[in-house]
């Protein structure tokens, strides 16, 4: 699939009979508030923004929802973070006690809007598996996924960041 690499997370193997519960990371499971300052300057400091991700505190509401869905579903993490952040991302997920699962990330050079890349991935996943739910904080992603017929939980438990919203939509960075 263009713009995304498919790699395994901490869990080995999948069970194609189980539905998928798809979770975003930033603003859904990870509280990015402490690193927003890197996006509020000009030019934006993407290197520092992503380098600070291992220090994100978890968002309790999102983590509880992921654990709840893991009882019946295979969890898949769908993030706009670039592939170069994989090692830190996998370590963060494990440190938070979140369910193991596949982690889908952007190619390092992919700058398409998150609403486009995530919907493309959801549609591809739905060809072979039931996608039970998408949990995401990006309103554009949620709107497009709902229009495409997916069940969506809007992660509204973190403080919204206009800088992050603009980055997701205009710069295709997360």
TrEMBL record:
Residue spans crossing the bilayer: none
| Entries under Pfam families matching the protein | HAD_PNKP
Q: The Polynucleotide kinase PNKP phosphatase domain covers which part of the protein?
A: 22-153
What protein is this chain from? Polynucleotide kinase PNKP phosphatase domain-containing protein
- Originating species: Streptomyces fructofermentans
């Amino acid at each position: 699939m263009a713009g995304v690499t498919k790699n395994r997370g901490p869990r080995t193997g999948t069970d194609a009979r189980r539905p998928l519960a798809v979770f975003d990371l930033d603003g859904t499971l990870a509280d990015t508030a402490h690193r927003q300052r890197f996006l509020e300057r000009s030019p934006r400091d993407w290197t520092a923004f992503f380098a600070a991700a291992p220090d994100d505190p978890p968002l309790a509401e999102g983590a509880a929802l992921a654990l709840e869905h893991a009882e019946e579903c295979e969890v898949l993490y769908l993030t706009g973070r670039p592939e170069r952040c994989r090692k830190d991302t996998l370590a963060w997920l494990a440190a938070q006690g979140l369910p193991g699962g596949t982690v889908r990330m952007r190619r390092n050079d992919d700058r398409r809007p998150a609403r486009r890349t995530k919907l493309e991935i959801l549609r591809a996943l739905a060809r072979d598996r039931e996608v039970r739910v998408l949990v995401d904080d990006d309103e554009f992603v949620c709107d497009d996924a709902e229009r495409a017929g997916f069940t969506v939980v809007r992660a509204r438990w973190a403080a919204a960041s206009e800088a992050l919203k603009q980055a997701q939509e205009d710069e295709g960075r997360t």
